[in-house]
Amino acid sequence: MILNLDPQFRPWSDEEIHFESFVFAGGEPHVKIHDNLSGMPVNVTHRINSFNDLGLLCVAVDAISRMGLF
Question: Please, what is the average pLDDT of the chain?
């Protein structure tokens, strides 16, 4: 499964993971993954154009890790 964090960047056409991302009032990014990913390998894609993009990537990787997929 693929977690494409940038809607304009889709290098693979595998099944995409549905997620929601937003920024808290203090500027912290947040990702909420809507799919059940138990036991499935996950690839994460993103284009880093700013520090906020890097933060979103880090939060997404942490969320997947907390789901026990790494």
Answer: 88
Whether the Cβ atoms of residue 43 and residue 3 lie closer than 8 Å to each other: yes
Q: Which of 69, 7, 58, 2 is nearest to 30 (CA)?
A: 58
pLDDT digits (tens, 9 = 90+) for 40-50: 788 899 999 99
Give phi and psi for 56, each to the nearest 5: -65, -40
Contact of 59 with 51, CB cutoff 8 Å:
no
Beta carbons of 51 and 62 less than 8 angstroms apart: no
* Tokens 């990787």 belong to residue: 61
Q: Which two tokens stand for residue 66?
A: 């907390």
